[in-house]
Design brief:
By secondary structure, the chain is α/β, with parallel strands linked by helices. The protein folds into two domains: 3-55 and 171-208, FAD/NAD(P)-binding domain; 59-168, no CATH class. The protein is built from seven helices and nine strands; from the N terminus they run αβαββααβαβαβαβββ. β8 (197-199) and β9 form a beta hairpin. The two termini are 22 Å apart.
Length: 209
């Protein structure tokens, strides 16, 4: 990417689409649009991935809590969100193994009932992910095994549950999308700030300054 050339092109050329914001969402949209044959400009007022896209939890997951709420409230929208999240987790783990990896998570529980509750819930989580990826399934850990894995656990713990989600290098992922968008033909530049829009005589936005 030649910054000077890109800035010149932003000044002189017309684009089908101007995306304002160089986070993962903006970069992903720019990449997708460029692959579809649109002439795309992507601008960011600071650094690419400077905000949320470098300050996330780094987790890629379907949402165990969403699954719990789906069954508690009979909310099928939450179930769809879990399935969609697990599909995206699978895609990231498969397509970006240099940026995403499996992550083991242990949740301590303090009663036999809680252990059963979480074990059943996580088996459902595994079931929703079945056929999508190769992450190990969840399992119950005895008190002894839980404390051997996490020595700092209190002696009051009853047992624990182990399950897997994904972990992502969010900033590098965002930058990969920016570079991929540029390679697909998008004109990208950071430290370029939008000041205003211009409208045509019919009131349609047709220029960004």
């Amino acid at each position: 990417m030649n910054r000077r050339n890109n800035i010149r092109r932003l000044r002189e050329e017309e684009f089908d689409l101007c995306i304002i914001g160089g986070g993962a969402s903006g970069a992903g949209c720019a990449f997708d649009a460029a692959l579809r044959g649109l002439k795309v400009a992507l601008i960011e007022r600071t650094d690419f991935a400077a905000e949320t896209s470098s300050k996330s939890t780094k987790l890629i997951h379907g949402g165990v809590r969403y699954l719990e709420q789906a069954f508690k409230k009979f909310d099928f929208d939450q179930l769809r969100q879990v399935r969609h999240g697990l599909e995206e987790r699978h895609i990231l783990l498969q397509q970006a193994p240099h940026l995403a990896r499996p992550l083991a998570l242990i949740t301590p529980v303090f009663s036999a009932w809680a252990g059963l509750y979480y074990s059943i819930g996580l088996k459902l989580y595994d079931w929703f992910a079945s056929g999508r990826d190769t992450l190990p399934g969840s399992r119950w850990l005895s008190k002894k095994e839980a404390r051997s894995r996490v020595p700092g656990l209190t002696d009051k713990v009853h047992s624990a549950v182990l399950y897997y989600d994904g972990q992502l290098d969010d900033a590098r992922y965002c930058l990969t999308l920016v570079v991929s968008a540029a390679e697909a033909g998008a004109v990208v530049a950071n430290h370029i700030e939008l000041e205003s829009f211009e409208k045509s005589e019919t009131g349609v936005l047709h220029a960004a300054i």
